[in-house]
Design goal:
The protein has five helices and no strands. 80% of the residues lie in helices and 0% in strands. The chain is mainly α. It has one domain (4-145). The longest helix has 52 residues, at 4-55.
């Protein structure tokens, strides 16, 4: 029979793996979105700046003035969205959270290997890991459901972790 403490650690290890994968995926998603807003904002701003500078001292048709004005508004809206949505910041937070889950995975692996070599798992070790995982879960950014679903597919529950149907 498997020690209940080892079973608990195995469940936590599965959760830490899923959380690490989900946070790395979210970091990549937020980073792509951040660039998706940022690059066009920079390009539109550059076009507007160049157009305004080129138009100094010359008469410009109203159509070009309107076009430059519209592009200027688009650049401002994209920049405002980038600031408001904070995708760059969310990407960094998710990447940091994923790295912390990686550290917890290594700590759990170390405790499990210590148990397998005949050592005894101390209650203090379990409490320490639980506290770290609770803190991470509380402080981590909220992730979209579709990312969690993919993480669950990538890291399924082991046979002994399946919920009982009895």
């Amino acid at each position: 029979m498997v020690d209940p403490r080892v079973q608990l650690l195995q469940r936590w290890l599965t959760n830490a793996r899923r959380s690490q994968i989900a946070n790395y995926e979210a970091a990549n998603m937020y980073s792509r979105r951040n660039y998706g807003l940022g690059i066009p904002a920079v390009l539109f701003s550059a076009v507007v700046g160049t157009s305004v500078f080129a138009a100094l001292g010359s008469s410009v048709s109203p159509e070009i003035q309107i076009t430059v004005g519209i592009v200027s508004v688009i650049a401002a809206v994209l920049g405002a969205l980038q600031t408001f949505l904070r995708w760059g910041e969310l990407s960094s937070q998710c990447r940091s959270t994923a790295a912390e889950y990686g550290a917890i995975k290594r700590e759990i692996g170390q405790i499990i290997s210590f148990d397998e070599s005949g050592g005894d798992i101390e209650e203090q070790s379990l409490s320490s890991i639980r506290e770290k995982m609770d803190t991470l879960a509380r402080d981590a950014p909220e992730l979209p459901d579709h990312i969690w679903k993919r993480a669950r597919v990538k890291v399924p529950l082991a046979a002994d972790e399946q919920p009982s149907t009895a």
